[in-house]
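User: Just a sanity check before I run the rest of the batch. Below are the structure tokens for the first item. I only need the designed sequence back.
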């Protein structure tokens, strides 16, 4: 009898990890196809895209490129994360017109986003926004990553470049889910220069911005501290460059980061004529 007990215990010890391994392999997984189908109603696995028909663009988002109200949507970001103990998926898509060539400087795809959450083995849309923004010159998507912005709070950080009249501008945006909506809560130019378009007519200018999250406060969302330093062009006269040295603090309020304080060092302007003064 003693030998039988020992053998039984040994078998149980061996089988338990094996069963856990099998369950892990066959655990249901939420796929990109399921997410795109939930958002657009269809998905072509061969082309890895969805056809978005009858695009009902809000008046503020009307774009001449989508005059036939049909677009081709594809995934640019599909990332899993965990918040408040729940499994979630952050989805970002880009949509381009279905009827025209779309690789020009002004060709900005429409970005959409959705957050999916798993509950009792089922996945559902927790927050979404089909009309986030138009962004990505030549139809190219921005760089995207998930970052922590608070206690169990996360955002998608988008980074993209603009080139206009030989000027370079690098910009970031924070895409944050809030009350069943996913929207741009913060934007900042983190680098600018006009080195390829300055000298004879306008001053050369360049500045950069550094962004840090203040984790010392008791706010649900971290505060953002921004420091900008360098020179920027004057809006009134292109041949003037203004020194930039400023610090700002932003607090999350009702879905947006709002500036609550700022410090600017005294600025000296280059005087061109007697009609222009500081």
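Assistant: Here's the designed sequence for the first item:
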């Amino acid at each position: 009898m003693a030998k039988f007990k020992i053998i039984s215990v040994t078998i149980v010890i061996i089988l338990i990890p094996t069963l856990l391994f099998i369950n892990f392999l066959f655990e249901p997984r939420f796929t990109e196809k399921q997410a795109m189908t939930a958002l657009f109603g269809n998905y072509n696995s061969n082309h890895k895209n969805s056809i978005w028909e009858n695009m009902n663009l809000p008046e503020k988002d009307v774009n001449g490129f989508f005059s036939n109200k049909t677009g081709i949507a594809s995934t640019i970001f599909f990332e899993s994360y965990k918040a408040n103990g729940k499994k979630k998926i952050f989805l970002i898509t880009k949509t381009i017109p279905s009827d025209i060539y779309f690789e020009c400087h002004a060709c900005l795809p429409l970005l959409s986003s959705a957050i999916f959450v798993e509950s009792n083995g089922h996945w559902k849309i927790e927050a979404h926004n089909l009309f986030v923004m138009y962004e990505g010159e030549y139809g190219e998507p921005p760089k995207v990553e998930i970052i922590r912005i608070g206690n169990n709070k996360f955002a998608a950080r988008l980074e993209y470049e603009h080139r206009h009249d030989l000027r370079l501008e690098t910009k970031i945006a924070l895409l944050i889910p809030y009350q069943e909506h996913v929207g741009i809560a913060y934007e900042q130019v983190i680098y600018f220069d006009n080195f390829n378009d300055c000298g004879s007519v306008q001053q050369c200018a360049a500045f950069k911005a550094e962004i840090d999250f203040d984790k010392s406060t008791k706010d649900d969302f971290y505060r953002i501290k921004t420091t900008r330093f360098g020179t920027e062009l004057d809006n009134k006269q292109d041949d003037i460059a203004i020194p930039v040295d400023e610090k700002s603090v932003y607090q999350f309020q009702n879905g947006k980061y709002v500036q609550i304080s700022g410090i600017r060092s005294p600025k000296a302007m280059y005087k061109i004529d007697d009609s222009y003064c500081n």
